[in-house]
Write the structure tokens for this entry.
Amino acid sequence: SGARSGVWIRAFWPMRCSRVTSLRFEGSLLIMLSASAVALDLTHVSWRNESGALQYFYDDTRISPWHDIPFTLGSDESGTMLLSFVCEIPLLSREKVEIHKSLPFNPLQQDVHKNGSLRTYVYSSSIVNYGAIPQTWEDPARPDADTGLGGDNDPIDVLQLNEAPCKRGAIQRVRVLGALALIDSGETDWKLLVVDVDDAAAPPWRDVTDIPTARVEKIREWFRVYKTAEGKPLNEYGLGGRAVDAEHALSVAKVTHEHWVEVRQGDISCDFNGIPCWLGYSHSLPHDEL
């Protein structure tokens, strides 16, 4: 098991069957943190392996890493918004683990091929700490403003660039530096470039221009070619492969947060292989009864 140490944020604590009005969850988490909100202590968040899936808990209460961990974890010393990062694939590992959208409480679980075999990176081990931002979703039905293509039906992906491998399941406060507009099988699959601000060895980068050019080029090329090792075509990039800056990348992340809010409100639907996404309440109940 694991837990994040030494971090407090102020946020609305998640409740099962929460109701949404406009962009505000009653009894749940918000992108804008309220001074009247209760304190959420991330040292109370833990995760443990249960039958091959990483399940999350707040003390003894089971929670969802997708819906119950907040989108934002406050700001850094300069006022820049920090986001939550869930570590799925640590640096130098190969197992393709991700937040499972349709299982109850959305545990982290290794993805499988159509034949049921476990997915791993065949091309090489991961060259970054890979994961996702909670409370986000790239809508397949909504063309992205930069690529003109719908999203990949997942929480937005994150490439965390610290030198040390993250611990699978860990929740970190990260600063967004930029992003790459990957296009995978005709779908928009943004990759946010971030650093863990609570790592004492973290580089002092604040924008994509601070990242060594060779590092960005290596990442860009890896995600362009890695699926060819499985007999799949090359991935492509929107914007000519240009990495956008921190401001642009953060605006992209906020849009995916808004899409997640609309899913939770019931304005749009989400499914995974024909199974409804698990949203923290019964799919059989009308929303006005929740």
User: Anything to note?
Assistant: The radius of gyration is 18 Å.
